[in-house]
Every structure is written in C-alpha cells, then in structure tokens.
Specification:
heterodimer; A: about 110 residues; mainly alpha; 3 helices; elongated; B: about 220 residues; extended
Chain lengths: ~110, ~220
C-alpha cells in the first residue's frame, strides 16, 4: 500500500513544475497548459487527502464515509472547463488583433 | 499484490512527471498538448488507485476528451504561428521569477519532508467500502449536500460558453492592427498630434472602442 504522503509529494512536485512553466513560458498556449498541470496536481492532492481522511468529513454519507474531497475535485473540473473555454477564446481574439500568441506582446494597455 | 500496487504507482507517477515536463519544456505546442494528455491519463490512473473511479472516468471524458481536443483545435487553427520562435527578450526576469518560485517550492517540500522524517507521523490510509468513489455515492452527495454548488456550476458553464462565443467572435467592423499602426499607437504623443493619426491609425480603433462607453474625456484617456 502506497502511503498518502507519496501522492501528496508527487502532487507538490507536479504543481512546482507547472508553476515554473507558467512563469517562464511566453507562449500563451503553453501558459494555459501549465495552469492545467497545476490544477491536476491540486486535484491529485485533494483526492489523496480524501482517501486518507474518509471518515472525518462533515458529510457523513454511505456508511460513514465522506466524499468531500472528490466532490470538490468534481467542481474544480467543471470550473476548469469554463476557464479553458474562455481562455482559448481570449487567445483567438488576441491573435486576431495582434497576430501573435506571445504574452509579452499583448501590451495594448501599456503606458 | 502489494508489489504490483507499488509498481503501478511509480509507473503512473513517472509518466505524470514526464508529461508535466513535456508541457513545460516543449517548444512545439502540439507536443505540449501531448504531454498534457500523458499527464491526464496517468493522473486518472492514480485516481483509480485512490478509489476514485468516477473521477477517473470524468478526468478521461472532460480532460482528455474535451479540453485537450479544444487545445488541439486552437493550435491547428493558429497553424504555424502557434509556436513562437525563441529569443532572449526578458529572459532574466523570467528566469528570476521561475527560479524564485521553484526554489521556494523546493525548500517548502524539503522542510515538510524533513519534518515528516523526524516525527514519523504518517497519514492514515483506511480501506473504504467497495462503493466508495463510485457514481452512486458521488451522485448522492451531489444531489443532497452539494446541490446548490452543482446548480451554480451549470450556470457557470453556461456563462462561460456564452462569454467564449462572444469573445471569440469579435466585434464586426473592428479591423486588425498592422505592425505600422501598432508602432504609431505606441509612440503616440498626447499633445500636438496630427488628426489623421487620430482617425486612421491605432488610436482610431481605440477611440471607436472608448466611445461605446460615452466617456466624456475619451480623447484624453486614449493612449
């Protein structure tokens, strides 16, 4: 049995990789995909904590086992689908306006 | 049996790490999307190991089936301009920010792991029921305790779809700025500027946008 700490450690490392990618990359598409990596890492940590503490949640359902973390992940996935739809629409609008997908060239509001 | 479970975890973890590194390091966005797909598949495998069968299925359907495909649509719509050539502009700032974030995170992880090694306090890992994480258990929570956020998430998705269509469609009559017009807009002087730049160049588009709000000082607030 793999202890829950290993899942949380993996999740932290994935979050770190995604965060560094978000800060370093300038291609807007790569930036959005790095955000996806970070959200996946957070989801993994939530599911691991839910598995570890399944009898301690507030909602005592199904013979005293709580699904709070998993339901949280469900809503995160829904919010993420919305985020990707709007984000990619903004990328397309920016490409139509500036003919670029680089985040440092989106400076119409600068100065 | 336990050896098999351990090997399964490490294979999934290594694949997830490889996928994340592929997203971050690849120059070509298509390869980045493939790395994201690999990460999503291996995280779904880890969900299965954590008794979250419903979430593993949702992960495959929503992420691999919708989000990655949406990314691929946009990348292929943009064509060759989706991959940007690398140059060294702003490299120092980016490396500083990324390095600071990475080192801080590594230090935090190291501190937590060291504390863990010292105290030997382990998180419990109780065995759940067979129905834990299945669609009936999650569905019962979704339609009892989490009913209000569930309905609100449907409203969120609706608004996001409408917003995405509105943003991606664009306003008719707003022309694309050329390179010269952008330069003209960037080197715009507040006082003593010829009228034709106001109406023809980049500033003209801004005026068009700003006048929609009927702001009285739109002329002054233009760039």
């Amino acid at each position: 049995m793999i202890p829950a700490e290993h899942y949380v450690l993996l999740s932290a490392v994935l979050f770190l990789v995604g965060g560094v990618g978000f800060l370093v990359r300038r291609n807007v598409l790569s930036t959005l995909m790095s955000i996806e990596v970070m959200l996946n890492a957070a989801n993994l940590a939530l599911v691991a904590f839910n598995r570890s503490r399944l009898a301690h949640g507030a909602a005592q359902v199904a013979e005293g086992q709580s699904h709070t973390g998993q339901v949280f992940v469900f809503f995160i996935i829904a919010a993420e689908a919305a985020e990707v739809a709007v984000g990619l629409a903004i990328v397309l609008a920016m490409y139509r306006l500036r003919r670029t997908v680089r985040s440092d060239e989106a400076d119409l509001l600068k100065n | 049996m336990t050896g098999l479970g351990t090997a399964y975890f490490y294979v999934c973890a290594l694949l997830a790490l490889a996928g994340a590194l592929g997203v971050v390091l690849s120059k070509n966005p298509i390869r980045g999307a493939m790395g994201l797909l690999l990460l999503i598949l291996s995280v779904a495998g880890l969900f299965l190991a954590l008794h979250a069968q419903f979430l593993a299925a949702i992960q495959l359907i929503v992420y691999a089936g919708a989000i990655v495909v949406l990314f691929l649509f946009v990348i292929m719509l943009l064509g060759p301009s989706a991959s940007t050539p690398s140059d060294r502009r702003g490299l120092a700032a980016r490396v500083f920010g990324g390095g600071l974030f990475g080192l801080t995170g590594l230090a935090a992880i190291w501190a937590v792991v060291a504390q863990q090694m010292r105290t030997h306090h382990t998180m419990p890992m109780p065995d759940p029921d067979a129905s834990f994480g299945g669609i009936d258990a999650i569905g019962r929570v979704l339609f009892t305790d989490a009913l209000v956020p569930f309905e609100l998430s449907s409203a969120l998705l609706m608004v996001a779809v409408i917003g995405a269509v509105a943003v991606a469609k664009g306003r008719q009559g707003t022309k694309t700025l050329s390179k010269a017009e952008l330069e003209a807009g960037r080197t715009f002087h507040p006082g003593g500027v010829s009228e034709d730049l106001h109406h023809e160049g980049a500033a003209g588009v801004f005026h068009h946008e700003i006048h929609l709000g009927e702001s009285p000082d739109a002329k002054e607030s233009a760039p």
